[in-house]
Amino acid sequence: MNIVIVGAGAIGLLFYQQLYTQIKKQAQRQLALKARKQGPAHFSFTHFQGLSYQIPINYADQQSIANADVILICVKSYQIDQALNQLMPYLPKNVKIILCHNGMGVLTKQTLLDLSAQQPLLTLLTTHGSKKTSACHIIHTGLGFCDLGLLQGKLSSEDKNQLIAEFANSQLNVHWQNNISEKQWLKLAINCVINPLTAINNINNGELYSVKYQQTIKTLIQEFISVAASQGQNMVFEDVYALVMTVAEKTALNCSSMRSDVIKQQPTEINYINGYLVTLADKANINVPENKKLCQQINQLTKLY
Ligand code: PAF
Fold it and tell me: Cα separation of 255 and 268, whole Å?
């Protein structure tokens, strides 16, 4: 399979490194990186156990996109729609498009309609920790896993198996999910709690274990459960709470993506995380004051840039 990765951020480069190790062994296959602008010829990768090495970058051109079997889009949620629309005129028929991002509601109705009904559109949810320390260095800070599933279009079982095999020898730990929308909602719960609270309080994820955050976390999850139920996703409070706290524990020393955005004075993904929940809640007449408060606080922080 020829693979193009769109986005040279921490996650895009982590996938590039993981797939590069597989693909370089097979001369007839191509891995390419589509970045906003052509950058360094190599990047340095630090393994989660500390070893560092250099990975050469093959930048994508129109030909790489035309020859792609898979396009993996790893950009921020607010950039996904535009990235996909820019690729649309060059997309080969039946290319598998995989979106990898935080949050939900990233594609406009028009973009979804513009994709051919057959075009396999997938999502990949990841819990891996990856940190970009400079334009040409990433650290794999935490070994996580990925859930992969089909959002729309058709995927033959042969294509599905080929796709899973593609990731099988990497450390990405990719699991196929028939019910990917349930996994998206669970990831949304994690992001709704960990991202804004760590950004507002400027803390590592693990500090959310402190007693002082427990009431807010519980209220956020209760609100989340009501909105999820209005969308046909029935979740149990104790399960969601346990999941959120487990992720906070496993990523205890990580700086969440929203906190990193605030530190780097970049736009955050709040509109696609708590903001997404608030929009659905308003439509369904559900009260979500704690989620609204966090949206306001994050927007206030970003206004100060
Ligand atoms: O956005 C993030 O940082 C991650 O999704 C997560 C799971 C909250 C861990 O930091």
Answer: 14
